[in-house]
User: Fold this.
Amino acid sequence: MSAASIRVNGREEPLAAGSVAELLAGRGIAEGARGVAVALNGALLPRRRWTETGLAPGDSLEIVRPIQGG
Amino acid sequence: MTDRLTIAGRDFDSRLFLGTAGYPNQQVMLDSLAASGTELATVAIRRISLDGYSESLVDVLGDRVALLPNTAGCLTAKEAVLTAQLSREALDTPWIKLEVIGDRELLYPDVEELLRATEELVNDGFVVLPYCNDDPVTCRKLADLGAAAVMPLGAFIGSGMGIRNPHAIETICARSPVPVVLDAGIGTASDAARAMELGCAAVLLNTAVSKARDPVRMAAAMRDAVAAGRGAHGAGRMPVRAFAEPSSPQLGLIGT
Assistant:
């Protein structure tokens, strides 16, 4: 693991974004996107805090959405 | 005559809740939802694909039905609570079909974890609909903790084995202070009708429709079965007798 990497949905990647909002925007997820939610280090990160929340090496981010289910 | 189901202050004309998984394709899913008449469809919460764009289910379903997110696949209260919080954020709904699984092969609920998660989520303002064992004691505990409904299983999830312990389901229905939704095990229309005859307030099913040879037709059959079973329950069935009882009058028989 390099010094500045994070985990996104279980996958290690270099830490390139300054904030959660920036990382999401890089994946085409705008702040107003419907049906997306984020957890940072095992806790829900509400949408309104995406912009102000920075990322640090070792952080673990989960980005989820609804899919088909029973 | 209106015969509405009310859960946590929300009214439903349809007593059939339908899952959205496992259909041959998206159009069949949409047509099945329409044919079923359901007003509440379940969805799962999963990681997005990081490899590229795929169509959002929320956009596909639009405003056709209300969505009931589930915590399927969660093995602990902790995982289920976080999944519920994520689903509330993603879908802007406090409703949650709470599943906490204790055995990956049987998909049987882990009662201890389920009770723990129910308590935590109720205290956090969720409308909790727990998938649970067909056990009157567990159902009572869940209702006492503030579950908006209880959803005992008829049989293993996805098994299509029907209602394996109808007496337990009937007992749960007779005693429950909250609506009872038969969840899991339904294989065909008669199972859904039976659930309603036993006193269930609604039926939740998925595979029986999505894996039918003709899902849209089965969805319509389920709609009719739920309505028929509900009607029969309200009408009150005749007593069962051990011997024959002639339907036609005995008086005036010729040759007597």
